[in-house]
UniProtKB/TrEMBL annotation:
Pfam families: PD40
UniProt protein name: Uncharacterized protein
Protein origin, superkingdom: Bacteria
Signal peptide per UniProt: none
Amino acid sequence: MFMIWKFTTAVFLFVFLLSGNLTGQELLPVKKSEFVDNEPNRKQAFAQVKEASELYQKGIGYVPLSLNLFLSAYNLNNNNPELNYNIGLCYLISGPRDAALSYLLAAKSANADISADIHFLIGLAYKYQNNFSDAIIHFKMNKELIQQNKYKEQKELLPISDKHIQECRSGRLLMKNSLDLEIQPVEGNVNSEFDEFNPQIIDSNLFFSSRRGLENDSRSPEDQKFFEKLFKASKSEVLDIEVREEKNNLGENVNSTLLSKFDDKQFVFYNSNSGAGDLFLAEKERGKWKIGRAIKFINEKDSRESSASLPQSGDEIYFVSNRKGGFGDCDIYFCKKESESKWSKPINIGGDINTEYDEGDVFISADGTKLFFSSKGHNTMGGYDIFKSDRQDDGTWSKPINLGYPINSTDNDITYYEDQNGVFYFASERSGGKGGFDIYCQKIPEPVIEEVAEEVIVEPVIELPETKIEVPVTLPLVSFKSEAVAITETPVKQELVEEDFVYRVQIAAARKEMDPKDLFKRYKGGEVIDHLFVENWHKYTIGGFLTFKEATKYRDACGVKDAFVVLFKGGYRLGIARRPFEAN
């Protein structure tokens, strides 16, 4: 009599979205007979479904191609619940993530039992649309289903759902206190359908990383995306913005990128082919980057050192590493320069900045007074958010503050950079871009000129000889951008009050619809008996109670020995209730 759910390991994908470790994921199988349904023109479309499923299995880099094939098949049959589910899942992986919602809702509408994680996925889709209240409801419904029906294979989703609920609450506060500034994608063809990130301004040129590529180019075995390469965008006489790849001596099949200036001649580069990923010094010679010696005082044999940044003084370096002994998987560390050729051992920056979640993409301002970094912890509104910490008088760093909306979003926001004029750049996976991560920058507003009204003074009329009158010059008043402010979270109203849920008492269930006489033999009370057909079972319930306590009291008094309490939400039967639902 329990609901039998189809289980998909898509749950592991979202463990990846939370922790960065991809374990595996599966689509729901689309049955040919149900998809074709005696429509000959759907046979070719089903071949696209099969091809899409095969591409999907190759890795995340192939998901956009898989999605396009699924959408093509969808044009000939948009009612198949498994196809709708798979399209929604692909959108959640490859983006735009806010496009997933309609397909997941359609899948659930066509088959309420489509998957054990359907409410979790719908919660994610609502979250990416900034609909935090509905997202919280579905995350809590997902938790309730796991706890009431004891789905052991889905227990991993309980803490993940709690994390998403907290992010929704943070998002609601951050959007309520949004900053008075505008951001925009960088000009020209810097952004593409692939990932662009890690912007740097060097000699008035924009350097950035991209995972763009052609069909036959090599792909990284980790995620099957094209290898990361360095590009430079500069002004051109022919084009407004000319984008060219910056070659280096590491070859093609490697993820490598420019991270920071090290001194007057050298730069810090990342090289994925060294250990688990290490930092190197590089110089540019005859138009090509020469990656030289490893930064031995930072790199460790079995750990990955990725992001790095130095202030203009060059007397300290901040970097990110997943070495053992940190607060989370990836932490921020620093080294101080002790002499011209000697640096201190790496020091963890501490628990005020590092969390049990990932920190990454560190950047220190040129004057060394501000530290920016990405984090999945603190009061993030989703995935990685960008945070700022100020250096205090004693040299320590202040408690970080979220840079707020619209810099941060419910998607991943990373690789913050600020030039010497205070103009900032960063990368984001948010919807509305060209695809994947796009690079955004601060939109510099036009100066707001306020006319200064001239005071009118009534003077006595005096006959004077005609003279030339000079009018005072009106000075422009320019408005500047406001600073991000720390937001202190206030108690959030209960998003999901118990009145949203209804407890009923189930008195009977049968494969065939029961005769009213048989029902009245089992139940002799006066309550209206509600008939529900679920999973080929006819189920009969009575009452409607706001609390579990009221429902159990009525169950014990209704006269049906094997009656039990079930929980409903919006007419949808969640399952047997064995304890009160926790709304907070």
